[in-house]
Amino acid sequence: MHIVFNRNIYTEKPYLIILIHFLIYILPALNLIVQFLTDWSRIQRGIDESCDIIYLSLPVQIFNLFFIYIIPLVINIIILGLGIRHVSSIQGVISGQIILHRRRRQRILLLKAIAFYSIWLILWSPDTLACQFVDVNSDPGVFTVLLSYIQIALDPFLIAIIDIRFLTKWRTLWKKIKRNRRIDAVAP
Predict the structure, then answer these.
(1) Ranges of each domain in the chain
(2) How far apart are CA 65 and CA 61, in angstroms?
(3) What is the CA radius of gyration of the chain?
């Protein structure tokens, strides 16, 4: 909505944003609760105080795969495509210079989006796919979880590279922290 209609959805519809965030956390929890109550999944305890969720049937694994991987991926692709389509629109623009400037900006935006989502898919997908089929305590499970942690650590940097406003705010915050930092002498 912000790109297409130039409206700030966070101030216009705050209850919708709160509801969506609430559903993001509640729906997966309800999914797991239903699966445990219907004996479609079970918790397997490891010998080293770790545990893993074991899904007992292939249809449940496929449902979870759609719920936690395919649906979010498709929604991201659709929203990204609609945003790029809108940004690349030259409808109503007469000046050739403005059209060239928009196309250059659109190409930069497209390259940044492709880079971000490629890194995101490479680091996020293995853990998301493997959690349905691989024991988390096995070597492949540990490797995929490690990739997921790397993705979580890299996200702020990738977003700062894509949107310079984040990088600017972080620099301002870092300067404030450095300016207000006090080093007190420690008495022996």
Answers:
(1) 39-175
(2) 6
(3) 23
